[in-house]
Structures are given as C-alpha cells and as structure tokens.
Specification:
The chain is an alpha/beta fold and 225 residues long. The chain has a single domain, classed as Vaccinia Virus protein VP39 (Rossmann fold). Helices cover 38% and strands 21% of the residues. The chain is built from ten helices and eight strands. An eight-stranded mixed β-sheet has the order 1-4-3-2-5-6-8-7, sandwiched between helices. Helix 4 links the parallel strand 2 and strand 3. The chain starts with a helix and ends with a strand.
Length: 225
Amino acid sequence: MGSKNKLKRFQDNEVFQNVIQPLRSEIVDEEFQFKGKWKRDFFKNDKPLILELGCGKGEYTLGLAERNKDCNYLGIDIKGARFWKGAKTALEDDMPNVGFLRTQIELVDQVFAEGEVDGIWITFPDPQIKWKRTKHRMTNPEFLKKYKHILTKEGVIHLKTDSEFMHGYTLGILEGLGHDILYAHHNIYVNHEAPEEVVGIQTFYEQQYLDKNKSITYLKFRLKP
C-alpha cells in the first residue's frame, strides 16, 4: 500500500463515526472516556458486546455482525489502515452494531471495565513462536488475566488459527490453569460439527491458508474465576 493510500485511510478514519482512535496517553494516563460505557455511549444500546482482537481488515467482525444483529461487535487493531475497509463497509451497509478501535491489545483491561465484555474472538494471531516473543503471544497467562478481568462470568473466548503451535500452546495453558475448554478441533473443515460462525466466515488470509492445504484450528473456552 502506497503512502498516499495510507494517508487517505488515516484521514477517513478520523471522520468515520464508527472508529475510535485514542492516544495511548488517553488510555494510560487518564480514565478512558468509553471505559464502562461502550454500550451506552458508543453503540447507544445495552446489547452484548463482543470483541475481535487483532481484527486486521475487519472481515470477521463484519461477518459476525451480519449473523447476529442482537450483539455489538468491536474490532480492535493497532493498524488503522487495515481496518479502514471494514469500517467503510460497515458504514456503507448501515451496520450500527459494528465499530473499530485502534489501540494495542495489551491495553484492553484499561479500555474496558471489569465485566463489560460478553465475548472475545481471536482470529489468526501471530503465534510468536520464538521463546523471546512469548510475552506477545495473545493467549499467554498474562493476556488471559486481562481477558478474564473484562469478561462477564459467562463470557467465552474463541481462538481460530492456522497455527498448530498456537492451538497446542493454548490448549496446554488452559488445561494447566484449569480453565473450561468448551470445544477444540485441529481441523474444523473435516469436522462436520464445527459451528457455522467458525466455518461460514473466511477471511482473505484464511482462504490463502486453505489454498495451501493448511489446517484451520478452533478453540472455544471459558476462563474460570
């Protein structure tokens, strides 16, 4: 993507009503304006709030929102030029239950209040295979603590990935910490019982993985208190 295109997307995001782009200082040094108030002040309703962490182009956020208009969906990514397309599509298609937030994933517990979130999707995250990158792995114990803080007691987390490593790592962490594994499969497209929202929504990159005959794995789990 050229620098002119990126600049155009940044400018569009500034005026898109479904995009929030706070400065890091607004989150870390102050009480973030939407913390504890996402449903009331951003979505203007009291419907369940579902996050997609590392949403990329926002394809999964849009796909979920199309299937369930009784929930609010918020895609989160640090790269605003990526989710620009998703935000633009949501506006053009009149999808008021879709929003996007540009921030770092590690700040989620400062962006959302305790028990404010009803569900989380993590779709095709970087597995951060090298040991020194473990702290950036999105299902490591520190991240799970943050998710547990913002989730309701019945809140569920979904992990969909092409990485067998990430799938196995997360299973091991969950079992070791005694969390509830609700569903696990290492190849959802050969399992006819996989949920429709898992096999029915495919991102651009997922299609590329499938073209290369890579297995797509899926985990659904709930964090115990």
